[in-house]
Amino acid sequence: MSDFSIGEKFKVTLFGQSHGPAIGCVMEGFPAGQKINWDFITAFMARRAPGQNAWSTPRKEADQPEVLSGLNADGLTCGAPLTAVIRNSNTRSGDYNVLKGIPRPGHADYTARVKYGDAWDGRGGGQFSARLTAPLCFAGALAKLYLEDKGIRIAAHIARIGNVEDARPDTVNPTLPFYENGAFPVISPEQGEAMKREIEAARSQGDSVGGAVECFITGLPAGLGGPYFGGLEGKLSQALFGIPAVKGLHFGDTQTYGSENNDAYCIQNGAVRTLTNHCGGILGGITNGMPVYFTVDFKPTPSIAMPQRSVHLKTMQETELTVQGRHDPCVVPRAVSVVEAAAAIILLDLILQGA
Amino acid sequence: MSDFSIGEKFKVTLFGQSHGPAIGCVMEGFPAGQKINWDFITAFMARRAPGQNAWSTPRKEADQPEVLSGLNADGLTCGAPLTAVIRNSNTRSGDYNVLKGIPRPGHADYTARVKYGDAWDGRGGGQFSARLTAPLCFAGALAKLYLEDKGIRIAAHIARIGNVEDARPDTVNPTLPFYENGAFPVISPEQGEAMKREIEAARSQGDSVGGAVECFITGLPAGLGGPYFGGLEGKLSQALFGIPAVKGLHFGDTQTYGSENNDAYCIQNGAVRTLTNHCGGILGGITNGMPVYFTVDFKPTPSIAMPQRSVHLKTMQETELTVQGRHDPCVVPRAVSVVEAAAAIILLDLILQGA
Amino acid sequence: MSDFSIGEKFKVTLFGQSHGPAIGCVMEGFPAGQKINWDFITAFMARRAPGQNAWSTPRKEADQPEVLSGLNADGLTCGAPLTAVIRNSNTRSGDYNVLKGIPRPGHADYTARVKYGDAWDGRGGGQFSARLTAPLCFAGALAKLYLEDKGIRIAAHIARIGNVEDARPDTVNPTLPFYENGAFPVISPEQGEAMKREIEAARSQGDSVGGAVECFITGLPAGLGGPYFGGLEGKLSQALFGIPAVKGLHFGDTQTYGSENNDAYCIQNGAVRTLTNHCGGILGGITNGMPVYFTVDFKPTPSIAMPQRSVHLKTMQETELTVQGRHDPCVVPRAVSVVEAAAAIILLDLILQGA
Amino acid sequence: MSDFSIGEKFKVTLFGQSHGPAIGCVMEGFPAGQKINWDFITAFMARRAPGQNAWSTPRKEADQPEVLSGLNADGLTCGAPLTAVIRNSNTRSGDYNVLKGIPRPGHADYTARVKYGDAWDGRGGGQFSARLTAPLCFAGALAKLYLEDKGIRIAAHIARIGNVEDARPDTVNPTLPFYENGAFPVISPEQGEAMKREIEAARSQGDSVGGAVECFITGLPAGLGGPYFGGLEGKLSQALFGIPAVKGLHFGDTQTYGSENNDAYCIQNGAVRTLTNHCGGILGGITNGMPVYFTVDFKPTPSIAMPQRSVHLKTMQETELTVQGRHDPCVVPRAVSVVEAAAAIILLDLILQGA
Hints:
The structure is a homotetramer. The first copy, chain A, is 25% helix and 23% strand. By secondary structure, chain A is an alpha+beta fold.
């Protein structure tokens, strides 16, 4: 029933509000005896951090996590819950003062107030803020590192910005990762440039634009997941729909007719494989040993510079508001690593469960 | 960690295999003192039942549930776990004998064998069979009945068969239900006829065809759900991806740009409403009091009459197989009530939790 | 939040009411490919069954479970949820008619009515009835069988009836099982005779008597359990306090002073052992490889033949009632196998979790 | 499956190691809009703090929690997870250096090493340390405060030190709290003095002594809890056995014979009550509206000044060790508030669940 916990044997609990003293996470069940590769974690978290380029908000965050527990004197994981804290700073709380009592369309302002009442800490979106994806990425980085040691790779790319789509990867033998060429991970550089123009166009009009992230996972053993509610799709979906602004999710690339959608089996190097991979590596909720992949749809960020119609919740009068502050015109580029992090957490959990 | 349980305070556990003695479910936490409306349940379950028309398998099932516990001597729910059992019959196990050791493409045959070993009861797909959606519909019917008494309506329609799409409903003030006009619930009768032709075309070629179901829920209070992993999208997704053949899920009808996707607030009859409903009634994972709606994508049923390439798992030789038996050329029409059932179970659970 | 489910990876859900059509259980997560030893199960369940001797109720039950799912055509577990149903019969519902609206002291009659309202099926205690320990024993028998194959033995004895105590077993090297000498498992035959006299004395006066069951588990690996709320004591306690009439639980035989309670370590056959075993094989919530043992206290059965003071819940008048029917004057002898079953379920769950 | 989380709707997750940077807790589901009474919390936590008198370790801890999230700008709970951190200091890690590789009898040193390997941070007991009961008390204080506003009081006293027992409270109409007379909460001052002598006697011999805490809860509504594994005894037991050094638990004061153990019903002021309260306010796992009470047994603290036999885990040789440092000769006085905290957390969870 917890809103901020995900996973069972490997469990991650997020905490914090956007403008409170700190955000962070507690990780339970991470295996003991692991060395923390801080370079890897810093690089992974930097992919999500804002303020690094033209496509994202100029707000800068240090986002250096402090580890409060879970490491021994030698810096190895020790089996205790691993807690990391990121102090909030540079929050410019004045940006949102105007919003008191006037919910921003597309944000959680109204629904949060219904659920929590007037005590809700709405500054910067409170606990709904995408800022909590920073500790999610910290936890995901550790999970990813552990999985990579087992030969399991997770890599996502920007599949779509507005109506501009990236090139399709090879779904049977994808070349991972997609993001080594820079901070804007795409397969086709040309399409990447067109996407950036799409973002710039939205920004110049004070608008925002949505898109999609596609994520691949290779090296998974066959047999992971289960029938019905234990299916890998369902397990991943709970984590992925937890990411702010996610509204859709699709596994594989389903074809219209069974004759083209069914993936024929073959034997390759003595192992069972499929010739195509429309099912996205999952049959009956269980991995078949082929690459797992899925696409996550993000809505356009609701923070836009244009005036919008809203209401005064206290006076119940209609009104107009303009959202202040600087915001990403598109969350998709920064969300690529968040999708990887969420997938890594779920997969590590399942692997530790032996499920 | 359970594959066959869904929900927390209202929890449904499915059991059974396609060709075992029986299938059924245990429902925990259903409120005591409720009268069971058997006409409603029978009618609801009949919508899922096979063999009733040209678009579904001619296999007939009685599917009359026997209640083993949970009712008192007067037939009211008594607070004890409510257990319903449906005996299997008319199973023609010979249909699948040929499949021993040769996995059918697109089915769980291979992945189930990896997970459970040779003891897996593969007849009819075992516990992966869509037949277990019958007890799911039984549980969903009870949940739906309870919710309707609270003014909450759940109704789905066939949104797409192959490339033929139904008309779009009004997402702000939808007219529910969609299915009173017959067993093929669509908004546009013309599009419905085109869909039937699409199914018939697939069948005549020994092929199958996929599609989509769209589900609406009206009457929900604002404030249901939560941030991050407690979001209503994530809760529903776990149940919906548990339905066999589901590969995709999308909430609302996300628009490309923030300026068109944000739903402006207004006051109507003294209540906060939105002028449009692109967010599908959910903001920050929490209901805003507008209709909730989502679309569920179903892959084409993998059982097709054409010869397909597969492998012998024992000899590890490639081979060809032809799936015997009679199968639905399209699961979507029968899946409409299954989607409603899954949604009803999750919503009742959240409402009983006060979440 | 489920009242009738226990375990996580291996999960058992009980269902049924005392006088409904049937009771039973669903077992999820039991390993596939296991042969069911029906002789073992029948013998184990017979130890709990009533009506077999002078110390228990003359009410006879067939208690033959029918398996509805979870076995393949060869009778091996197949990985699907394993469901067993026991039909109710010989229920003599007239016995309790007098009790309508007048709660029996010591039973759940009053509290159940507060929780479930008038629809509660109070016949025979409804879902509170100890009759649901029959399917618990079925599940426990399967778990016990699986554990014994791994060298893990679980055996309990009657530790106390009233004020008559059994002899103390060797807690470092106990000789298991205790019950091969008959249906009244004790270590000291003399004390066993004194216990039977205690039960007979209570019965002859229309009274009942409480007692205790002590349970030993040998062959457990060191390292099972965890700190704080993951401790083995807490895991076992949730199952053991779920058994009707249990009011107390103690692990090991705690001594007054640290100098006598601490178990000194030694090396035996190259392995770490302790010279004494006051901690009951658990330190910091984790097994240390020594025998685990604990004592479960049962209150005297509340069904006694003497007149008792109670109230009319409808008229809110005080009144007197006499409980009709035949009842165990002492539940302890039949509870010995129930304690073993509950322990077996929890231990199998932990072992499958790798915890 | 989490070792450090307890509760469902109100969930508390502990974190930290004894000698790591910090310990703390995350509380999910605490109601929004509550004012934090810091005086109450400080006073409650002070009851657990060490170093305040002759019966406890002279080690002083500031134990001032810093709140990182969960409060709004006005200091009210805002609905976000409430995170509190207590920095570690005054840890004198040299005390335990000698213990590397030589497990202290009665502690978790050996079992932790089996479970976590050599990376386990054994300084001060790592995550097994009773120091983590400080954040548990912080969470418990908030829960207690909330419950007291609803008229629910929780109060415990020292029931036994060694063989010295406190006087018995009135179990039908207990006078709460027991602890207003000082830091050593007992009902009988004379027995309290005898208990202190017992502790002093153990200390003077370099020994330790065990005891018991009895806890009462008044003002609970009837109907809280459930049958079988949903019983209040089982819910409380999981939290209480999570407290370090707890080995036993008993609800009510069970009498030998049914005729004396059954609590007769009566009508008082128009309400159903019982004349006696041997069942401890719980029947069939559900509260009956009478005071709930239970006794928790604590083993003597394993840290004693006498030489003890142990083993070198690396060389697998037997050896002798002497535990350095200053330790409580008896944990019971400080554990009184910890028992109250654990009970408060579980009860708040159940009440928020509406269970």
